[in-house]
Design a protein that fits this description.
about 450 residues, alpha+beta, 5-stranded antiparallel β-sheet, 16 strands, about 35% helix
């Protein structure tokens, strides 16, 4: 059985050399498993034929976008074939009448958004990795991002999918229509399934009209509790908050040191609050922010209204993750999602646990929708310290579940969180998940070892 020869009869983009295999052996999590083959599909027909081949010979297949995930979702745990969709990068159609764009899975999310804005159309989801993540990867993880509190996650905008199921079965789920109540929504089952059920090759996305104006407020609070109480109060006044980002004190200090922000409010908790819409909506949003702030003793409050000001503010926010490496050489990047009412207790509790374990924990995230990013800064070469860091990881998830939260708001489960699924779900529910998996993938060859097989 010469699998390389069979693959090469399907596509010219088959690689077995060590350099390419190493390059596609890991994602942003840093977890590494080396594949036997790396294949770059150029169209749906190639995906279909590859899918037939792997089913026939029971070869593990790992669909891959940009490899920007933090949970090992794209790594080839059981060797096999990494199937990269990055060459499937064409925007196929912009349908203005239906306000739908049809895109191949490998299109970079940021490029898609920029092209649509030229047509006065708006695709709202904006993950922090939008300059390099792919729209197919966003679908497979139901990606969120900075503006989820108003605009929702990727799922809200998926009108249809072209999916290749194991054995080369191609199906169109959904389409250009706006709603459907005919049968089970398999489309919604595929969204967020992390490549474990089928290969998403094309995406039909719903579009909006871009907002006319926006404003971003920067508010520095004396305590974490004040910042959370402010958010809870503000969201009782208005639903028109586009983004509301929390940045913890340790990170604020780093941003000040690097002159990424102008304030000198060291050891403060920073909120970045964006409001968009028409002129009246934005003015009302600003007024409501200022009204709510009257009940708090804030360190500093400023607003940005010009495009360059707003861009600088969000560049600083998107610098948060990489700047943390100034603290320690190893980062364990986790996310959880909780009811907003539990955020203050949760943050204080996990910080106290980290302090007692002598582990550095830096927290930021999408506080208005309860989605926190917890970054444990450590040194994997210091085995004692790294062991304490791993204990903190366990506590982060156990505490989130105890407070009626969940294991992830946007990173997904992948490989690294799969061992925690038995804490989040009952045995019965895990069996339901596995039964669904086996309906679509009875040979368990689609991205094996992920979500609930850890």
């Amino acid at each position: 059985m010469d699998i390389e020869k069979k693959l090469s009869s399907i596509t010219k983009n088959v690689y077995t050399n060590t350099e390419i295999r190493i390059g596609y052996s890991y994602d942003a999590s840093g977890v590494e498993f080396r594949p036997d083959f790396v294949v770059f599909a150029e169209d749906t027909n190639e995906v279909i034929e590859i899918s037939k081949l792997v089913k026939e010979f029971k070869i593990p297949l790992y669909p891959r976008g940009a490899g920007s995930g933090f949970v090992g979702g794209a790594v080839p745990k059981n060797s096999g074939i990494v199937l990269s969709l990055e060459k499937m990068n064409k925007i196929l159609e912009v349908d203005k009448k239906n306000k739908i764009v049809i895109s191949e899975a490998g299109v970079i999310t940021g490029i898609l958004r920029k092209n649509l804005l030229k047509e006065n159309l708006f695709y709202p989801p904006e993950p922090s990795s939008l300059d390099f993540c792919t729209i197919g990867g966003n679908v497979n993880t139901d990606a969120g991002g900075l503006r989820t509190v108003k605009y929702g996650t990727t799922r809200r905008y998926v009108a249809g999918l072209e999916v290749v199921f194991p054995g080369g079965i191609k199906e169109i789920l959904g389409g250009k229509f706006s709603k459907e109540t005919a049968g089970y929504s398999i489309k919604d089952l595929i969204i967020g399934s992390e490549g474990t059920l089928g290969i998403v090759t094309k995406i039909y996305l719903k579009l909006l009209i871009p907002p006319e104006k926006k404003i971003v407020a920067q508010v520095y609070f004396k305590s974490i509790g004040d910042s959370i109480n402010f958010v809870n109060g503000l969201l009782l006044k208005t639903d028109n908050i586009t983004a509301c980002e929390y940045i913890g004190p340790e990170i604020v200090n780093l941003l000040i040191n690097d002159k990424m922000i102008e304030s000198q409010a060291r050891d403060s908790s920073l909120l970045l609050i964006e409001v968009d819409g028409g002129q009246n909506e934005v003015e009302r949003g600003k007024r409501l922010i200022e009204e709510e702030l009257q009940g708090f003793d804030v360190i500093n409050y400023t607003t940005g209204t010009e495009e360059d000001e707003i861009e600088r503010i969000w560049i600083a926010r998107k610098s948060v993750s990489p700047i943390l490496f100034k603290l320690k050489p190893t980062k364990i990047n986790e996310d959880v999602c909780l009811p907003r009412s539990e955020l203050k207790n949760y943050i204080n509790d996990v910080q106290e646990y980290a302090k007692n374990k002598e582990v550095l924990l830096c927290i930021f995230g999408h506080i208005a929708d309860g989605n926190l990013h917890l970054n444990i800064m450590t040194d994997k070469n210091n085995l004692t310290e790294f062991a304490r860091a791993k204990e903190l990881v366990n506590y982060i998830f156990e505490k989130a579940i105890f407070l009626k939260g969940t294991l992830s708001g946007e990173h997904g489960i992948g490989l690294l969180k799969s061992g925690f699924m038995k804490k989040r779900y009952s045995d019965n529910m895990l069996e339901y998940f596995k039964s669904i998996k086996q309906v679509f993938d009875p040979d368990l060859i689609m991205n094996p070892g992920k979500i609930f097989y850890g």
